[in-house]
Write a structure and sequence with these properties.
Elements lengths: L8 E12 L6 H16 L8 E4 L7 H9 L5 E3 L7 H14 L5 E8 L1 H5 L21 H15 L3 H15 L13 H6 L2 E3 L2 E2 L8 E10 L11 E10 L15 H12 L8 E4 L5 H9 L8 H5 L17 H4 L7 H13 L12 E8 L4 E8 L3
Parallel strand pairs: 2-3, 2-4, 9-10
Antiparallel strand pairs: 1-7, 1-8, 4-7, 5-6, 8-11, 10-11
């Protein structure tokens, strides 16, 4: 049954709105603007949408609030939250709903005005009983622990971590929509203000405003739309914990399962992937994802990214829009992996376009290395 979802659906419309700073806009207004853009991209109207897949950080029942704001009466909706991985997971759910005939036009959307409305990201431990007595600064503390363990276990260096941030910035400099486009060096990353040892401020994602929207339809309709489709080839979701202290190994994530499921459904291997969009909340994320998704062996992620391998001109393009480290990070980043992947597969990425890109991998991360969701998209089904 799962394998039958290969080629069942396709992305036919994408858009972003308010990336960086959007003063005066609410999160749902930004979401609505992105939705308008994605539907226009697909040549559709709001009344065509009958499947809604959404989440926000400010609405307790996001499907109801977003549906009401957009004036939708969907036949199918999904707003389960697994953090930033939710939107990559929604691509899998939307493909299943479309194939089953539960909806005909699926809309995946997100919006946040985190930067202009909320200011700096606030550190909260929340109701995490085992960790709270140690006064962690979540989510940074959790990722710092994973980073420190990877460095201890495998000899990963600060300079290798900095390579991730520098590569992201190099891609962002080719993207006019990226929030941070100034030059960035390895020395600047390692010498930046220490936030949570061993992570500096340049190892941490941005805090921005922004919204994104994705429109999906069944594959048999996909070529009837204005832009080239990005076909859904495979997907997988996995989560093992919530609190980072519940991880059996701080260097291994549930991407080992989500990736295996996605590749299995697609009938592909890492060697078949032309471009990767990885959730980079911190510089350790892409290193762990590259290992756990099978692009290199466990412990080799640091050396794998060295020497500009994932930067423009490198052999494996990663986060070609600049990622969460340099393009945008409005609270939850996952939807932007889908948008950039579709943009690359359409050949519409401008100066950052990866020549001949036919297969793209999107990977979402949620919570404290908790939820992992993987999707593979392609130019053909």
């Amino acid at each position: 049954m799962a394998r039958s979802l290969r080629g069942a659906a396709a992305i036919v419309g994408v858009a972003t709105a308010g990336l960086g700073e959007a003063p005066g806009w609410t999160s749902i207004e930004l979401l609505g603007k992105a939705v308008q853009g994605a539907l226009a991209d697909a040549g559709l109207r709001l009344r065509d949408v009958d499947g809604l897949f959404t989440n926000t950080a400010v609405h307790p029942q996001p499907a109801l609030s977003v549906g009401e704001y957009l004036g939708l009466r969907p036949a199918f909706s999904e707003s389960s939250s697994i953090g930033g991985a939710s939107f990559v997971a929604y691509a899998l759910a939307a493909a299943a709903a479309l194939q089953a005939g539960l909806c005909n036009v699926a809309l995946i959307c997100y919006g946040s005005n985190q930067r202009t409305a909320l200011g700096k990201l606030q550190a909260k431990s929340g109701n995490q009983g085992y960790e709270a007595p140690y006064r962690p600064r979540h989510p940074i503390t959790s990722y710092a622990l994973a980073t420190a363990r990877h460095m201890h276990e495998y000899g990963t260096t600060r300079e290798q971590l900095a390579e991730v941030a520098v590569a992201a910035r190099s891609w962002a400099r080719l993207n006019p929509d990226a929030f941070m486009r100034d030059p960035l060096s390895i020395d600047q990353v390692t010498a930046a203000r220490l936030v949570s040892d061993p992570l500096t401020s340049r190892d941490c994602c941005l805090v921005t405003d922004g919204a994104g929207a994705v429109v999906m339809v069944r594959a048999d309709r996909a070529r009837d739309f204005p832009a080239p489709p990005a076909f859904f080839l495979g997907g997988g979701v996995a989560h093992w914990h919530m609190q980072v202290d519940q991880m059996e190994d701080l260097t291994v994530t549930a991407a080992t399962e989500s990736g295996r499921r996605a590749f299995g459904m697609a009938g592909l291997r890492p060697a078949d992937v032309d471009v990767l969009q990885l959730y980079d909340a911190f510089t350790i994320n892409p290193i762990l994802a590259l290992e756990d998704l099978g692009f290199c062996s466990k412990g080799e992620g640091g050396s794998f990214v060295a020497g500009g391998r994932i930067a423009p001109g490198g052999e494996l393009p990663v986060n070609t829009n600049g990622g969460g480290l340099s393009c945008c990070h409005p609270g939850m980043y996952g939807i932007f992996t889908l948008i950039e992947a579709a943009t690359q597969l359409r050949g519409m990425a401008g100066a950052r376009q990866v020549a001949g890109a036919k297969v793209a991998l999107c990977h979402g991360n949620g919570g404290r290395l908790a939820s992992q969701a993987t999707a593979l998209l392609g130019t053909e089904c």
